[in-house]
Structure formats: structure tokens, C-alpha cells
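SDR family oxidoreductase
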Amino acid sequence: MSICRNRAKVTEYGQPGLGLCSASKAVLKLLTKSWAAKYGPSGVRVNAVSSGPAETEGILSIDRDVALKTG
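Predicted C-alpha cells:
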């Protein structure tokens, strides 16, 4: 059995205007690690995938260069 979560790189860098988003993503990052520690010994694989930013209007409105560089 496997559990796979998507996560965002926004948890790795502080960016203006993304405090709440970063905090909620950080919770999911640590929850994934906690699940891996709890369920891993039972044979359950728990992973997180961080694909980086997509060039959406929301990302581009923050700061295109910063968003793509830190992604």
C-alpha cells in the first residue's frame, strides 16, 4: 500500500504574501513524515512529490522571477 501527497516548494522559502499558504503546506509536509514513521514499519510507503511551480496567473502575479527561481 502507498500514500502519495503533492506538496509545494513554498514551504522551503519565505515569500511575501504567502505566509498562510506556506504554513498550511508545512503542516502537510510534516504530516507526511509522521505518517511515514508511523505506518512505514507496517509496509505502507508514504511519499511526497514536489513538482515545482506552474506558470499560472497567481504565480506570475507574485513575482515571476522569484517564483520560478525558488520553485
